[in-house]
């Protein structure tokens, strides 16, 4: 395994944190290192805690990992919340003009590195507060043994449109931080990196949905803003004109999907994107696309549900919804991209399937794969993508007789004529219809016509199944445990398996990309041989495990589930696997770290954010009917105790707030 | 895009006979649309008729052209997508008052704001016909229907006034008892560059026992006969939009020339999207990729 290093950057929303993260990631990637980052952001625009992790590695990193080697704290809050996560040998880098970092918060072998930002920037004239990030970034370059010039290049590209003076100022500030670190600190990395200097694109899944669509010939994109799908709309909007795409922000998701279907029916490749709530509004129309056999691609980027849920957090909780979307049986394809670069190819394939089989293709993504940026290989994306439009008839000479839009063919695919073609006029109907598209829903209802047209439509799914790749088992066949996942968890499960292998637990992995149609036969054959099947999903109930049972009759032995809004990290999975293998029950108690996080929530909502938690202790005998975490709360400015919070270990109930004044 | 010669009216008639109740107002609207298409010499291949769900929304199945008989309330959105995909098509939306002013109202208003070049014909029978006679958004206050046995308590929507405030650039009202007059209004709407609304009194002879043919015949008069009225005078249009009672105006309420959505959309500059190559230039791809480094 190659070397790696993880930087965490924490601050308030509005601190310009993602810009700094982006500069760091791009600087690193230009040196030929791999980067995988994750931003735990909140949906408030200013204030609120933001936590960005940037994992830097010599070999491909499939997740943001579970290490922390350097913490860059942009506010006090970050120090308090994350300083103790920094591993031995690491450091906390912070602006010492603004706040302090108590050594009591640090693990053994971790140092606090104060940077007097004002003093460093004073000779440079008026400097925006947000520039503290650049000072710290300069120090980081030294500490992590990166190259100063690489970051200068990134700054030049980022601020190029603002003119040389702005670039120069930024570089000076960066230099100030770098020089200060060189003078006062020692590098955290012992040895120098091996810079491969391979230039890699640094991308998010949403950017690749958009780019993939453009490369596949998408000419129409519609959306209604909804996190975490909005960045597809933003990319499309800023590139649409150049790429010849009509990008339409609509009045609601009903319009979004119906417009895309109208465009698809009229003959252009059309796509729309949304999250779970918007998708719920789209469902009836998805059935329409199935019924009128209109090609359309819909991207559903899941976020934490139910209802409006946790808009800026990840989950895989919409599987049931996507499966269940719309009344009746109709053909549709459901694809879940496995990793970032796969978002590009899923989209290309989605358009081909949509047109070849004249049906809606639903891409089910999630916040994690859609929004986290990572480096991919330069040739992961290609210019010459395959474009297959299926049976498209461009002329209908009068000798052909009356055109039957829904001709009962043996394949189920009826050759498609686009509106505007001479002599083949037809009306597509969402009511049940005959081969010509004529309604059979009212006075003319004909059971056999209905039966055959229904079979015709559904038959297309057999062809799709032959057209898509069956999943394959990854890892040793004789493994003790088979981990089953779907969509974006592929990478983190793979890394968890590496951890388990290092501890002598042999595992393999089955990662599902095509959810519908489903390779029941192949999956059954694989899983029949598995010794212990554990399904890993980012939802509460194990929606895929239930589907798997329905499709294969196989009941998984156990499930590893996460639904707190944060994505899996390798160690969470590996620990859970060990627990399951050891036959231990699942622990749903509030942990000490969680009690502290809950205290932060209380402080923000009830104590005007003017306090912080310190000691956390479990107390067993009390009147609450369960053990409680007693969290001591002190005033942020004076450190004076303001009271104690009592949080139920079992229920998570906030049993009591005992202010000091009231005595206790 | 018009044909050289006027085609026989049968050219525009679908293979299926309409299955509306005998005497239904929608027959007159279908006929008027056929006459309008004939008058404008439109080739059937270039007409795209989109409807929602309702008795009135069955119209595309009885007309000979391309089209989609879509979902209840969604015709406007489907039509908008199709128009943006191929703006050389003459896109006509047909439907009912429930379809367009109830469940689909949001799309209606936004389509007007956009001034897409669409022609919207609403067969306004002030009732839900297909679902056998419940109150609709245009049912008059006090009207007893299956769903309002003690009389409808809500005020009706005023489609003409709504269109006036929403940015439609051609606003008309017809009566299916006046098919020739209606045909002129529809033809005017199709010929108009921008969003056209043609609201039509199209009586439901089965479920609306109040707003019947005789009821309308007694009241309607043509705006064209009011020599002092000028449909380019917005204030005058507003006044006419609120005229209701013993005398009810039909005809062209409002017309103005504004830039259309299609004209401002840069991606449509090179012609209809359906005819654009699927693949972008290699150089553009390289530029897009460069942004990721
Ligand atoms: C989403 C949805 N809700 C309800 C219906 C049932 N439905 C069909 S037509 C209709 C009302 C039709 O009224 P209108 O649009 O005025 O047409 P009319 O039959 O009067 O011409 C309703 C409620 C439906 N098809 N879809
Ligand atoms: S129910 Fe009314 S609207 Fe429907 S076809 Fe009969 S008369 Fe026409
Ligand atoms: Mg009606």
User: Overall pLDDT of chain A, averaged?
Assistant: 95
Largest beta-sheet characterization of chain B: 8 strands, mixed
* Poorly predicted segments of chain A: none
Strands side by side in the biggest sheet of chain A: 9-8-10-11-13-12-21
Class per helix and strand makeup of chain B: alpha/beta
CATH architecture of chain B: 3-Layer(aba) Sandwich
CATH homologous superfamily assignment of the largest domain in chain A: Pyruvate-ferredoxin oxidoreductase, PFOR, domain III
**CA-based shape of chain A:** globular
| Major beta-sheet overview of chain A | 7 strands, mixed
| Total DSSP E strands of chain B | 8
Relevant CATH superfamily of chain B? Thiamin diphosphate (ThDP)-binding fold, Pyr/PP domains
The termini of chain B sit apart by 48 Å
CATH architecture title of the largest domain in chain A:
3-Layer(aba) Sandwich
* Strand residues, percent of chain A: 15-25%
| Secondary structure tally, helices of chain A | 19
What is the fold named in CATH at topology level of chain B? Rossmann fold
């Amino acid at each position: 395994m190659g070397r790696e290093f993880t930087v965490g950057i924490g601050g308030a929303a509005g601190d310009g944190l993602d810009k700094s993260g982006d500069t760091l990631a791009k600087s690193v990637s230009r040196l030929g290192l791999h980067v995988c980052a994750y931003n735990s952001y909140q949906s408030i625009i200013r204030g609120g805690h933001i936590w960005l992790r940037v994992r830097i590695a010599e070999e491909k990193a499939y997740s943001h990992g579970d290490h922390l080697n350097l913490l860059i704290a942009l506010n006090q809050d970050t120090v308090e919340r994350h300083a103790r996560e920094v591993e031995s040998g690491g450091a906390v880098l912070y602006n010492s003009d603004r706040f302090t970092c108590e050594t009591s918060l640090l693990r053994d072998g971790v140092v606090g590195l104060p940077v007097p930002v004002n003093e460093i920037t004073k000779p440079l004239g008026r400097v925006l507060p947000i520039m503290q990030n650049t000072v710290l970034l300069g120090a980081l370059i030294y500490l992590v043994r990166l190259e100063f010039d690489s970051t200068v290049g990134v700054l030049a590209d980022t601020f190029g449109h603002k003119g040389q003076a702005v670039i120069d100022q930024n570089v000076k500030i960066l230099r100030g931080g770098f020089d200060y670190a060189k003078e006062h600190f020692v590098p955290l990395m012992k040895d120098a990196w091996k810079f491969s200097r391979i230039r890699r694109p640094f991308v998010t899944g949403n950017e690749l949905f958009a780019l993939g669509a453009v490369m596949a010939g998408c000419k129409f994109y519609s959306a209604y803003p909804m996190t975490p799908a909005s960045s597809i709309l933003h990319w499309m909007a800023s590139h649409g004109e150049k790429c010849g795409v009509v990008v339409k922000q609509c009045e609601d998701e009903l319009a979004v999907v119906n417009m895309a279907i109208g465009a698809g029916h009229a003959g252009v490749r059309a796509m729309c994107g949304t999250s779970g709530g918007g998708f719920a509004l789209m469902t009836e129309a998805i059935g329409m696309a199935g019924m009128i056999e209109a090609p359309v691609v819909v991207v559903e980027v899941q976020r934490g549900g139910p209802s409006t849920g946790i808009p800026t957090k990840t989950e895989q909780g919409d599987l049931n919804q996507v499966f269940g979307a719309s009344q009746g049986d109709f053909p549709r394809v459901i694809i879940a991209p496995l990793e970032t670069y796969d978002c590009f190819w899923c989209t290309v394939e989605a358009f081909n399937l949509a047109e070849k089989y004249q049906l809606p293709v639903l891409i089910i993504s999630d916040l994690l794969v859609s929004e986290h940026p990572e480096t991919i290989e330069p040739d992961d994306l290609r210019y010459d993508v395959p474009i297959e439009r299926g049976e498209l008839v461009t002329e209908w000479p009068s000798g052909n007789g009356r055109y039957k839009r829904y001709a009962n063919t043996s394949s189920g695919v009826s050759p498609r004529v686009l509106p505007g073609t001479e002599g083949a006029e037809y009306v597509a109907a969402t009511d049940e219809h005959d081969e010509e598209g004529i309604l059979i829903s009212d006075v003319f209802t004909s059971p056999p016509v209905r039966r055959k047209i229904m079979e015709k439509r559904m038959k297309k799914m057999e062809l799709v199944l032959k057209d898509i790749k069956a999943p394959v088992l990854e890892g040793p066949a004789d493994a003790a445990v088979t981990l089953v996942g779907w969509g974006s968890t592929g990478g983190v499960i793979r890394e968890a398996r590496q951890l388990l292998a290092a501890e002598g637990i042999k595992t393999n992995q089955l990662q599902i990309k095509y959810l519908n149609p489903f390779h029941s036969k192949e999956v059954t054959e694989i899983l029949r041989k598995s010794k212990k099947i554990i399904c890993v999903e980012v939802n509460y109930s194990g929606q895929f495990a239930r589907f798997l049972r329905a499709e294969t009759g196989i009941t998984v032995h156990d499930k590893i589930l996460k639904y707190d809004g944060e994505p899996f990290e390798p160690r969470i999975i590996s620990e859970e696997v060990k627990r399951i293998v050891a036959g231990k029950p699942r622990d749903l108690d509030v942990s000490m770290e969680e009690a502290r996080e809950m205290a932060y929530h209380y402080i923000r909502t009830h104590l005007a954010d003017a306090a912080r938690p310190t000691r956390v202790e479990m107390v067993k005998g009390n009147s609450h009917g369960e053990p409680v975490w007693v969290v001591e709360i002190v005033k942020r400015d004076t450190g004076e105790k303001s009271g104690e919070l009592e949080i139920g270990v079992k229920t998570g109930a906030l049993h009591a707030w005992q202010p000091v004044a009231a005595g206790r | 895009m018009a044909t050289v010669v006027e085609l026989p009216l049968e050219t525009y008639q679908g293979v299926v006979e309409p299955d509306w109740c005998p005497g239904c107002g929608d027959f007159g609207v279908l006929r008027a649309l056929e006459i309008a298409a004939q008058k404008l010499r439109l080739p059937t291949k270039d007409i795209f008729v989109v409807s929602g769900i309702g008795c009135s929304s069955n119209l595309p199945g009885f007309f000979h052209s391309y089209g989609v008989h879509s979902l209840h309330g969604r015709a406007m959105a489907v039509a908008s997508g199709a128009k943006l995909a191929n703006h050389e098509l003459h896109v006509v939306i047909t439907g009912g008052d429930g379809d367009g002013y109830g469940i689909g109202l949001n799309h209606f208003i936004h389509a007007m704001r956009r001034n897409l070049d669409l022609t919207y014909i609403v067969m306004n029978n002030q009732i839900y016909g297909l679902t056998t006679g419940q109150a609709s958004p245009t049912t008059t206050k006090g009207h007893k229907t299956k769903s309002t046995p003690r009389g409808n308590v809500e005020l009706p929507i005023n489609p003409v006034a709504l269109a006036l405030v929403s940015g439609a650039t051609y606003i008309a009202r017809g009566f299916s008892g006046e098919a020739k007059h209606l045909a002129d209004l529809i033809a005017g709407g199709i010929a108009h560059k921008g969003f056209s609304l043609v609201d039509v009194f199209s009586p439901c002879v089965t479920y609306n026992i109040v707003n019947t043919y005789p009821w309308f015949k007694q009241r309607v008069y043509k705006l064209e006969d009011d020599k002092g009225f000028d449909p380019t005078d917005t204030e005058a249009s507003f006044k006419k939009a609120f005229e209701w009672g013993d005398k009810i105006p039909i005809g062209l309420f409002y017309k103005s020339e504004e830039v259309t959505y299609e004209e401002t959309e840069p991606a449509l500059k090179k012609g209809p999207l359906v005819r654009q190559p699927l693949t972008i230039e290699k150089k553009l791809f390289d530029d897009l990729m460069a942004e990721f480094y």
